[in-house]
Predict the structure of UDP-N-acetylglucosamine 1-carboxyvinyltransferase.
Amino acid sequence: MDVYKIKGGKPLQGTIKVSGAKNSAVALIPASILADSPVTIEGLPEISDVLTLQALLEDIGGKVEFSDGKMTIDPSEMIAMPLPNGNVKKLRASYYMMGAMLGRFKHAVIGLPGGCHLGPRPIDQHIKGFEALGAKVTNEHGAIYLRADELKGAKVYLDVVSVGATINIMLAAVLATGQTIIENAAKEPEIIDVATLLTNMGANIKGAGTNVIRIDGVKKLHGTKHTIIPDRIEAGTFMIMAAAAGNGITIDNVIPFHVEALTAKLREMGVEVEEREEQIFIPKTKNLMAVDVKTLVYPGFPTDLQQPFSVLLTQATGSAVISDTIYSARFKQIDELRRMNADGKVEGSSVLLSGPTPLESATVRASDLRAGAALVIAGLIAEGETEIQEIIHIERGYSNLIEKLKGIGADIRKETISEKASISE
Ligand SMILES: CC(=O)N[C@H]1[C@@H](OP(=O)(O)OP(=O)(O)OC[C@H]2O[C@@H](n3ccc(=O)[nH]c3=O)[C@H](O)[C@@H]2O)O[C@H](CO)[C@@H](O)[C@@H]1O
Ligand SMILES: C=C(OP(=O)(O)O)C(=O)O
């Protein structure tokens, strides 16, 4: 079992570079299925979700080359191979194989997706969209069967604002006949990134980034070259880290506009945030004041930063309430932070945190990706050596984290330890 070991309390200083966005990458890669010639994506993060998607494309006959963040996918010989199990369970975004394969082959068999356990994560809105386009969708023994004689554009109103459903319906609709309108669409920057790739492949999409997206179906899509946007959640994680443990940190390769909700919260707490063109500088913070946080759909405060942000609140003066309106039970980090001396309590869909509390090292478990990121930040602050187990979740989403953190002075290493030392349930 691999673990991270972190000796906390080191002064962190210098420049840390953000990689390409995980939540774009995991949609851009499946989008290539819709082309009739090679698609090249540059700036991809080196994370296990990307490698798993590469394997899934290879499973269906794609020829994929991936090195130095550049992936070239030749989709010309892909076939509609069923993917009921195996790799699809390893990540959430395998659901994009549904929209992309349905769009190209008019049928697909895909196992139910995996991903972080954040409470219930239904895909009813994805299915509602596929059905509106004319697909018959059934769930048989844990796999979703999708089949359509023809996909025809339709109006789809999303009952909940969903990133995954918005992108998946776009993927299924770009090669359908006629016009599809997605109403109450999600507006995340990753949706614009995917729409940009599809447009450069020859698709006709208007309104991505607003809550109404119009797609006029085209007959075919061709290969292209695309550079991914920076990961705003990784950037936000580094901003929180800089506020909690930094001695002057520059976060490089960030679009400041994409992290505005976090910037505003940090400023409210007393953190100085200097925005530059593609960088953010955070000097050493002296006094942190507690602030309440409520997660919302974009451009609101992202649920994916709520868990890392909770660590910062343990260092702030006063009491604060965090409410997660997207995933009401996304608080598994709190039990682990309590092992490290944090004063936090989960109450329904909120957490009450009081501080400042000096964190102490402990052996803790990364129950999910952002809980893991939270524990890394906690480990960087804590007195002594913290061991983080189940880092497999962290490596789904953070590219070269150890090297990046060492580069700003952190004492962190990856070690393999005996399974017997696991603290998992
Ligand atoms: C791979 C990826 O991009 N993952 C992100 C994506 O996940 P994901 O696409 O799974 O999240 P959604 O935006 O779909 O979910 C938002 C909310 O809608 C609900 N819902 C969603 C779909 C559906 O069919 N029915 C339904 O009820 C969910 O339970 C959740 O409460 O957006 C989340 C919310 O910003 C982020 O935390 C994830 O990092
Ligand atoms: C929840 C997340 O990822 P996924 O949707 O891939 O599980 C995340 O990136 O924080």
The chain has a mean pLDDT of 96. The pocket of uridine-diphosphate-N-acetylglucosamine (ligand 1) is lined by residues 23, 26, 92-93, 120-126, 160, 162-165, 186, 303-304, 326-327 (CB under 6 Å). Residues 22-227 form a domain with the UDP-n-acetylglucosamine1-carboxyvinyl-transferase; Chain fold (CATH 3.65.10.10). The first strand starts at residue 2 and ends at 7.
